[in-house]
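Quick question, first post here. What does this chain look like in 3D?
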Amino acid sequence: LSEGQSVFHVLFDTTEKQINQFLTYCYERNQTTYSTKELMAAFNYKTSKLLPVIQQVELFQEQYSEYTVNYQSESKTIKIEFSPRFLLSKVYAILVERTVGFTFLDLLFKGKYHSLEQLSQETYSSLRTIQRKLTELNQVLANYHLSYSLRKGNPLEGKEYYIRYFYHVMYWQLFDETDSDLLATIRDKQTIATQIERHAPYMRKIDCNKFLSLLAISLQRIKQQHFIVEIPDEITTFEHPLMTKRKFTECILAPFFQANVYAVSDLTDEEISFLYFMFAVMNTYLEEDLTEIHQDWFDNEQYSTEEIIIDKLSAYFDLALTSKEKNYLLVNLLMIHSYSSVFGTEHKIDGFGKQTRESELEAYFPVMYPTMRRFLIAIKREIPPLVGFAKKNDRLIFQYCMLVRTVFIKYERPVTFSIQSKFGKTQELWIKNRLLNTSHRAIQHVPSVDEPDILISDYPIYRQLGANKQMEIFYWNGQPTSSDWERLKEKIHKIRSEKHKQVFDSLSFHQFS
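> Answer (accepted):
Ran it through. Tokens below.
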């Protein structure tokens, strides 16, 4: 499996891989015209290979019309334009849906699979191709602790809660709100969604759709007599911080199953526990979402690992955390760890089906990511469960950064700036307000005598710097252009990153050695 790809890329034929690669390359470079020479170099193709690929991309417009592509033979150039509605994730979804592996799994889920001959007709593929592709499918299934064998009456083998999770991942990465076969199977969907929003207001519309998709998958599996009879202790003992299992069963599950002609009383305890667990761990919780945590929830010794990590984070980043911030970290760390422990996979993908490279994850947090990595290395001996979480979740450091960033931003040292303009005070006031109002990050206007981090001027300044030897002098025209504003934005971002680096470099790490 190549980095940056989904495990589902294994199912792609050469044609699907080439279409996806071509459209991704052109979309990310945001040009309208490409020479064949450039594309041949980019993909390491000869002309005899490039032209058939272009033809396949042209044909793919029939399945996804949000772009146009034309090959100009005289100039040997390709012109391609993308509509505002174009999505690479939709390209990926369409390509996955037309693979042999996906068609097989989809037919199996819907109870419509009968034979290899039928699958051959459905996918316009030879029996030999079908057999080869289904062999490759086991590479995908193995990542989710599953396998298949056509020699058995139930081809998909593995624990039922793993099968539910796999189908959830498979369908969710292709989710389209206006075209979802899963959501279309749910009766009285809007009433049930309203009920969820009423009792769980912290769930966004897409969170509701995500859980409804899982409910639809569970209902289908139950109707096919595939019941959850075994679950790990992490699911059995799990408690939602904002909703009891009883309330969940009465207010969420009962209306759904009643509307879809199945009695909630017929569900096993394991089935309810699984859905209760998933209802919680598939969400992220903000500080304002956690105002009504059950007091007895905090007494559970199950959260001791998370509490220790929070204490270490507080000391490591030198933050005096409030009780609300601690609750925010505690709940979300528990969700991440619980999810990782139960559904840990060697190759983790995001909601769009992509397995992100660590270099890409680190690019989001160029300063914090390596610092968080050092933090986890420093404390893993004291907190053995962390080793297991990291092995089962290759995005763990990134998720930690996402959580801590929300807290850290509130404590970060502001970038200070001052303005001097020949146009006078009103011009300086306009620039100041624009800078203060266009950034949610800490930024502060100070008098120039206070030697800010950056001094913005539309005329030459000659003066000795005082104690602040790091002060930047940024020049632009009296009436700044959009290019000037962009340069200033980049400069402020650079200054902020450097301030963060100085803070992290000054942290005392010896206490964790």
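The first strand starts at residue 33 and ends at 35.
Strands lie at 33-35, 67-72, 77-82, 147-148, 156-157, 415-420, 443-445, 454-457, 472-475.
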